[in-house]
Structure formats: structure tokens, C-alpha cells
Write a structure and sequence with these properties.
The structure is a homodimer of 249-residue chains. The first copy, chain A, is of the alpha+beta class and 249 residues long. Chain A is built from 8 helices and 6 strands. Chain A has 2 domains: 101 residues, Glutaredoxin (3-Layer(aba) Sandwich); 134 residues, Glutathione S-transferase Yfyf (Class Pi), Chain A, domain 2. In chain A, α1 runs parallel beside α3, α4 runs parallel beside α6 and α6 runs parallel beside α8. Chains A, B: InterPro entries: Glutathione-S-Trfase_C-like (IPR010987), Glutathione-S-Trfase_C_sf (IPR036282), Glutathione_S-Trfase (IPR040079), Glutathione_S-Trfase_N (IPR004045), GST_C (IPR004046), Thioredoxin-like_sf (IPR036249).
């Protein structure tokens, strides 16, 4: 028995309705996506699935929690998201996104031309290498106080530089859209950028003293990205999960 | 005038000769690849171009050197490789590789099935996120001596964990080839792995006391990858460049 990836019509923008088609993934069970609402990496996948009208992935919390031995038996790094494909699996959000694009190409979250696709992938890679990597390394250091001050300073400089790279790459691409990162439709870059900037703007700026680290063009992009319903929904899920975490201690 | 990407017949394996075809890239000048022989990231691109028989990219050293203001005007991170496409450009080796695959698909360095392609991309991402990132961060710390000992220890633990992730992901894919990382032909994963392991095995092990950090399966893969002529040529270029750097100071 193969799982049929079904289409949820409520999420189809009118301009893209003709692109939707039922897609079969040849698996004996539904794909399981290990994820959590708080994760900006998982948010990318949720944005992508909804933009494509795919609503049949099983969303599952990592058993034992992030980084637990129980979950590392599933994904060696202990990170989310992880897409379990009936035995084998795919880790790393950027890789999962490319896989979903290949399996369910329409509506595409990559532009048509190889040059524009490369610019989308460059922005995604830039977020992964130069923004989220230093940003999330600050968390354990914050608890160490004074003794970690120097290490923290280096990470903040990295993060600030990373935000600059992202802005520069987008501006130099010659393809910056008015509402989206590249071009005039939602791409994989938008999910990556929105998730990362949510954490920079809502947490890193205040907690790490990073005011003015987000270049004006990027901040403006972040505000317009919120007008996309799939981005808005994912960011709201992060917000709700963050509030719940804060309330729980 | 468009640049014609020419085919160099000497590099065509007999089994793939029928795949070769002249490819036109619509640019008014030859693509310029900023690179250096010592870089494992640039080595991936050299391996890919030769495997495809493309010999018309201009290889150029970064003007002013890596990280210089002069070169950052070209690529904001100051890193190589960077592919200049007649005005705009593409940074990050993983992104450049995907672009070259899209422009010049044959012979492909990605497998046919989306599942196997995802495993190749996962290994590339794993090298970029968890191996080369901590490894090259150790260099400035080595010069700081005792004061950087704790930070160095953390990076080495990260690097060791990263080598474990790479090995695990490959073994769990169910697609590990006998001569190549995934399947039985050269893929983008092989270039990434070979370049990174060259530095781990030839420098990090001795300089950083990292003996036994490379899992046996990975070490065996590294040895068999050297039988691929394009991998061997790129690794030799790294070796020659490293010797020259050592001799020069």
C-alpha cells in the first residue's frame, strides 16, 4: 500500500490552483516528520508542505527529546527535523526541503532558472552556516555567565557578520523581490530566513544585546514575509511554543 | 557571444563517453571560478568540472587573498570558491555544485532517485556543518596556546562527533557503495568527503591529537576514493599546495 499525499484545498492560492495535483509517494506507510513547533528548521518544512498543499505527513515529537539517546538512535545528531521514510531517513532541513521539491515539484518553491535557484540555495546555506549555527551556540554560554563572556562575544560577532552576508548576497543577486527574498513568489529561502530572523528579532536582540544587527533591508523583508499565510502560520506556531516554554519555566 | 563549455576527452571514462555533449552557457564571457588549490571546498568543484569534462572555467586566485577587503568586494564572506557569472555570482561550494549539475547535467554527479540524491546531499551538508566548520576554526586557536585550550577542546569534540555523524548517515542510508560514498559512481558527496578527510587525516590527526577520530568505514572509503582519477588529481593539488605553503613558511 502506498501513501497518497493529499491536497488540502484551503491552502492553495488562487493563482496557483491549476498547479495542484495528487502525488503518490511509494511508501508502505505515511512519511513521519520528527519536528517541534519551536524549531525554525522544522518551520521551513511546515511552510513548504502547506504551500504545496501536502497534509498527510505525520508530525511527531522527537522521542526522549532533542539530543536524547533515544532520539539519536533515529537521527545521529539528535536534531530536528528528520524525515523517516519507512526505514531509512533524511536529516537536515535544507536536504529535506530539496527532497520534498523533487518528490512534489508543484507548486515549486524554487524558481525556474538555474541562476535564480542558485541564489535561493545560497541564502538557505547562508542562514544555516552563518546565522543559526552561531545563534544557537550562544544558548549554553548564556547560562555560564562571566566565564563565557569572551566566547559569547565571538559568537555574536559571527552572527552579526552572518546577517550582513545574507543581506549582501540577496542585494547582489539582482533578484530581490518586493515581498519575497528572491523573485515574487515564496521560495525555500523565505522559510529559512523567516525562521532564523524570528529568533534574532524576538530573542537574540534583547537577550544578547544585538540591537541594530539586522540590516534594514532584511528587517523589511521579514515584515513583508509575515504577509504570506504559510509563513505567518509557522511563525505563530513558533511564538505559541515559545510562550508555552516560557510559562513552563 | 556565449561561452561554449568545451569537453576534454582525456577525462572521459569509457563507460560514460556516450553521455558527453557540448554545453552552452549563455554568458558573454567565460565563467570565472575564484579558487585555490589548497581549498577542500574548491577541490569539490575541480573534481566535478573534470568529471564532466568541462575545461573552460577560468580559475583565478582571490585578489588580495582570502578574507581581504579586496576579495570581500567580490564575495562578502571572503571565502572560496566563488563562481562569477558575468556580474552576479554564486558563493558556497555546495551551492555552486548544484548549479553546475543543473547547467551541465551529464555525466551526473547526483544519483537518479530522489531518495539517493537526498542521501548524497545529506553527506555534503554533514561535511559542511559538522566537519569542516569546527576543523577550520581550530587554526586561529592553535596559535593562542594554553589560553585557548578549553575552546579548542570543544571544537575537537565537535569535529569528532561530526565524523561520527557522517559515518552513521552513510551506513544508515543503505546505499553505501564499495568505491564511492553512495552507490557505485562518483557523486557530489565524494568530493566533499575526500577534501575534508584529506585535512583530517593529514593535518588534524597529528596536529590536534585526533588519532582514532575517523571511523574505520570512513577511512576505508577515503582510501578507495583515491582510486578515482579526478579525486586523486584534486587531492594531489591540495598536497602540492600544502607543501609549497609549508616550504614558504
Amino acid at each position: 500500500m502506498s501513501a497518497i499525499i493529499t491536497i488540502c484545498p484551503y491552502s492553495v492560492p488562487a493563482s496557483r490552483a491549476s498547479w495542484y495535483q495528487p502525488i503518490t509517494i511509494g511508501l508502505s506507510k505515511m512519511p513521519t516528520l520528527y519536528q517541534a513547533d519551536l524549531s525554525p528548521f522544522a518551520a521551513r518544512i511546515r511552510i513548504q508542505l502547506r504551500a504545496k498543499g501536502i497534509d498527510s505527513f505525520d508530525f511527531v515529537l522527537p522521542p526522549g527529546g532533542l539530543g536524547s539517546d533515544e532520539y539519536k538512535a533515529i537521527n545521529p545528531t539528535g536534531k530536528i527535523p528528520f524525515l523517516d521514510l519507512d526505514g531509512t531517513g533524511i536529516a537536515e532541513s535544507a536536504v529535506i526541503c530539496e527532497y520534498i521539491e523533487e518528490k512534489c515539484p508543484q507548486p515549486s518553491l524554487l524558481p525556474d532558472s538555474p541562476e535564480a535557484r542558485a541564489q535561493v540555495r545560497l541564502l538557505v546555506q547562508c542562514v544555516d552556516m552563518y546565522i543559526t549555527t552561531p545563534m544557537f551556540k550562544t544558548i549554553p554560554l548564556l547560562e555560564q555567565g562571566e566565564s563565557a563572556k569572551e566566547a559569547l562575544g565571538l559568537l555574536l560577532a559571527e552572527l552579526k557578520a552572518g546577517l550582513g552576508y545574507l543581506n549582501e548576497y540577496r542585494n547582489r543577486s539582482g533578484l530581490a523581490g518586493e515581498r519575497y527574498a528572491i523573485g515574487d513568489q515564496l521560495t525555500l529561502a523565505d522559510g529559512a530566513i523567516a525562521g532564523a530572523l524570528f529568533f534574532v528579532i524576538n530573542f537574540a536582540e534583547a537577550m544578547l544585546g544585538l540591537e541594530d544587527a539586522v540590516p534594514a533591508d532584511l528587517r523589511e523583508l521579514y515584515e513583508t514575509l509575515k504577509d504570506d499565510p504559510h509563513v505567518a502560520e509557522a511563525l505563530n506556531e513558533i511564538h505559541v511554543a515559545a510562550e508555552a516554554k516560557r510559562a513552563g519555566g
